[in-house]
Amino acid sequence: MADIYLDNNATTACDLAVVDAMLPYFTEQFGNPSSIHRYADGVAKGIAKARRQIQALLGAQHDSEIIFTACGTESDNTAILSALKCYPNRKEIITTTVEHPAVLNLCKQLEKEDYTVHYLKVDGKGRLDMEEYRSLLTPNVAIVSVMWANNETGTLFPVVEMAELANAAGVQFHTDAVQAVGKVAMDLKATKIDMLSLSGHKLHAPKGIGVLYLKRGSRFRPLLRGGHQERGRRAGTENAASIVGLGVACEQAMQHMTYENTHVKALRDRLEAGILAAVPHAFVTGDPDNRLPNTANIAFEYVEGEAILMLLNKQGIAASSGSACTSGSLEPSHVMRAMDIPYTAAHGTIRFSLSRYNTTEEIDRVIAAVPPLIAQLRKLSPYWGENGPVADPEKAFAPVYA
Ligand SMILES: Cc1ncc(COP(=O)(O)O)c(C=O)c1O
Ligand code: FES
């Protein structure tokens, strides 16, 4: 039986059209786009076309607002560090408790360098408190960086509205839209978003290519200095093949946007409904009303996420865990902790993230596979008795994970 890939928030398979478009840039068109000979002829043109394809998907005003980078992480770092250089007297940053490490770990470092970082809290469904946000927006803030969609739960933040508020307060606004691009319709020219990060490998383009969108007129200081590539805003010879691939991936994403929000969403809903109907003591985390169409993060109480993943893997099903145990930590993920998910549930969260390549048959196989597997693990769980959870399992857990 074929394997089932439900880990698309981690990374996606390259679309075959993307690979086809890239191939000539490894062979005939391998020249440096800055050179003046036939090996470079089509390269600059290929890059220019990709810029327009990405502009179209983002609804950007100008193609010059697209800066190619090496990854989403580089885009995030560049955006935040740029604002700190542009506004040297402002020593505060606003972000959230549930950002990707690409933002969080940079902020942790900046705290050691005398910046004050305000981490906006989320409620039990992963939603932000806009009052708290408003109260923190002062002239001391250099930049607000808030993700468009959360990678673990798919929860969407109201970034368009938050950017308006930041702009009114004279503060730059950056959004990490790595998980949102291609799934959420965007019209950046109609927003006050100054900077946005995206990453190719989350939308069926290769790994190692990213974009930083920079609104025309917004202040900017480059992270990498060197050659004059990207109008001096990001030095380094262009990754032409990947850029061309990303362009095609963005065009495809535009074509599939409706499908993603109808068909893929229906598959996700089918998966959730099927699993929740058959498994007691399980629930969906995140904001059910404001979510990516492809993401289901399900907490299975009283079992270990890692054990679930291993049993799923044995059956050819690839998903990921909301816990951090794979990274060698016994703590559940910072996103689950921020939402105050009890640790007896947070340790058993599984993220199923779909793509347009998934089928109803695959989803039905997963719906059939999960319930017996959870039952099997609960039989082994010290927190699960004959008739369900043992009394006060939270207390029983506490000394272990304290
Ligand atoms: C929300 C978010 N931001 C940033 C990144 C980092 O992107 P990249 O892997 O291209 O550096 C990821 C990827 O996991 C992500 O999910
Ligand atoms: S899921 Fe493995 S330690 Fe929490």
From TrEMBL:
Molecular-function annotations in GO: cysteine desulfurase activity; iron-sulfur cluster binding; metal ion binding; pyridoxal phosphate binding
Reactions catalysed according to its record: (sulfur carrier)-H + L-cysteine = (sulfur carrier)-SH + L-alanine
Keyword tags: Iron, Iron-sulfur, Metal-binding, Nitrogen fixation, Pyridoxal phosphate, Transferase
Any Pfam family: Aminotran_5
Family the UniProt entry places it in: Belongs to the class-V pyridoxal-phosphate-dependent aminotransferase family. NifS/IscS subfamily.
Protein role: Catalyzes the removal of elemental sulfur atoms from cysteine to produce alanine. Seems to participate in the biosynthesis of the nitrogenase metalloclusters by providing the inorganic sulfur required for the Fe-S core formation.
Protein name: Cysteine desulfurase
Lineage: Bacteria, Pseudomonadati, Pseudomonadota, Gammaproteobacteria, Methylococcales
